[in-house]
Task: structure prediction
Amino acid sequence: MMTSRERVSMSFAHQEPDRPPIWVGMSAEFQAKAMRECGVDAEGLRRRLGDDFRVVRARPPDLETPLSAGASLRTVFGIEHTGIGYGQPMTHPLANAASLDEIEAYPWPDPAKVDVSQVRAEALRYREEYAILSGDWSPLWHDAIDLFGMEGLYLAMYDAPEIVEAVFRHMTDYYAATNRRIFDAAGDVTDIMFIGNDLGSQTGPLLGEALFRRFVLPCLQRLFALGHDYGLKVQLHCCGGFAPLIPALIEAGLDAVHAVQTSCRGMDLATLKKAYGDKLVFNGGIDSHHVLIKGTPDSVRTATLVALAIMAPGGGYVAGASHDSILEETPVENVLAMCDTVRAFKQKI
Result:
């Protein structure tokens, strides 16, 4: 029987393992519910579900000042958010930036404040059996929206492109440094660099290919290259219908995409597999929006088998939900049905 790490390695090499690897990303609320219903702890739940991965992260910098009234979190770039979960930014400090001097004067964070002291030990805990993912999430596209505001960012790309480029350069400098610190500590016991930027909406990309190639792709390419310098595969979490951007991401060196939202325009599994299945690993694609949340165990099993029939041949597929975190309203029995169906699926070796 293969170990999880062997199974993932074969899939990322576009070979067929004994079965496709299973990916289980869970919200804290769903995990707590599933642990209660299954009567297990967090690690026991991952084993019950057959999760072939373990994610190891550095600790973010400690807050140096208390949050403002109404704020729920503060990003590393100093933007406070309010609302449920990640929430929405409360301010956009660079919305009116008119000069490069203002960008240089912005209080950019110090990557040395990211705590990497526990990363190696956590990776070694799982290394023999599971595929290890690590790295800084590096959501530079979201950070840019925080700093400028979404409309302001789009306008600045046309009206002040040199200011936008300078901001992306500073953010990428930071994330390159934090990822380098993480991989200096544990790159040799890590398998996959895992970062995330949501570039799509329900109906298509959030920016056109020309703007993407000018402002965002060079930053991602720099991070992809950093992961490859440490001998790692690179996986990008990207929600939405970003299919028109996939060729550029492949050109930039991306190895895998997650979580393949099939309910969005252009994200049909058969189309993606035919066009890019030999070049890109697809992680996810079992519909969270309509099937996992609203379906029954029987309908989940059917949808899972359909996805496996399309995506498993030739390797290059990781089975999982089409959203990065399974939400609390998802029935536990549906997630068990998805994972058990994958675990029972046989591929040739």
